[in-house]
Automatic annotation (TrEMBL):
Protein name: Beta sliding clamp
Function: Confers DNA tethering and processivity to DNA polymerases and other proteins. Acts as a clamp, forming a ring around DNA (a reaction catalyzed by the clamp-loading complex) which diffuses in an ATP-independent manner freely and bidirectionally along dsDNA. Initially characterized for its ability to contact the catalytic subunit of DNA polymerase III (Pol III), a complex, multichain enzyme responsible for most of the replicative synthesis in bacteria; Pol III exhibits 3'-5' exonuclease proofreading activity.
Molecular function GO labels: 3'-5' exonuclease activity; DNA binding; DNA-directed DNA polymerase activity
Main localization (coarse): cytoplasm
SUPFAM superfamilies the UniProt entry points to: DNA clamp
Lineage: Bacteria, Pseudomonadati, Dictyoglomota, Dictyoglomia, Dictyoglomales
Subunit structure: Forms a ring-shaped head-to-tail homodimer around DNA.
Domain (DNA polymerase III beta sliding clamp C-terminal) ranges: 245-366
Species the sequence originates in: Dictyoglomus turgidum (strain DSM 6724 / Z-1310)
Residue ranges occupied by any DNA polymerase III beta sliding clamp central domain in the UniProt entry: 134-241
Amino acid sequence: MKFITQQEDLYKSLQFVKSAVATKTTIPILTYVYMKAENDTLYLQGNNLEIGLALSMPVIVEEPGEVCLPASLFIDVIGKLPEVTLEIHVNERNRAVIHAGYSDIEIQGESTEEFPKVEIGNIGEYHASFDRILFAKAIKQTIFAAAEDEIKQVLTGVLFEGKEGKLNMVAVDGHRLALKTLEIEKDFAPIIVPSKSLKEWQKIITKAMDDRVNMAALDNQVVFNCGEIYFISRLLQGQFPAYDKIIPTDFTASFKANRKDFLDVLGRMEVFAEIDQTNTVKISLSSEEVVISTLPSERGFAKEVLPAEVEIDGNLEIGFNVEYLMDPLDNADWDEVVMRFTSDLGPALITSPEDENYTYILMPVRL
């Protein structure tokens, strides 16, 4: 195999593939990057059996062929080279010779026989297509609410439910729920995508150039496509909670505030909440003001008035995990946020008048 390409083009493509390469595994070939050159195209793949990524890029192919090279070493070497034309030749013993300006580097590769190649030829028809930026934001606004505990594996994923012309992306962990809705052209059966996979895909499409993201749900995996990049993830199996029954509709109090102001106040309260290891803040509402405070302790105490428009009959005091309260604010770009309350022990709802397609539900903690 022999091909010619530019250092910056190859390195950029390898950065995408790197996200799917295994770092800790008992299967050595999963730590390699797969390369195939033919018809003036270089095909690159990484696969750690949880996620797989395949992409193609134009090159000048002088001799077709394929090889697996150790990903960490190969990517580091390409990244350290100057922005010059690269000539890469792989001999019959799978040894790659990289010629770059005054540099000549050799890397020993492996046969491609044992590499689990990402198959993208059986996708057929895509189930949904999204604006790349909107889809990246939707992932960002939901994945943090997925569970990290593997005991209930289904909760470590995000539900993709396509019905009535809407895609509902839902994450729950037993303490909170994040729901983001996007428009789709046709419905499809619900699937559960691991949040770790979505986190990697979100990083990739944030840097991608194409405007659209396509999605196809297969038997036990999902395929995302953006331009020349194909990303495949396994699906989680199991019964996702009936999330629509969790969302409250009746409220006794609410306030509207500037999102950044709210987030900044919580950030100052978080310092004390973490020191005392309670991670709890108290929100006190009256008809005149919203006061956010920490719980009193020997180490100290803090409280602050949050400028807000309040709607309430009487008073309300309620506690929340400060990190859970900050997450939706930190992952949004709204100017204003609305928080609604059912009772001092019932769920609260966070949304924004600027985004009617987002809902965040948070359970309180006892004070």
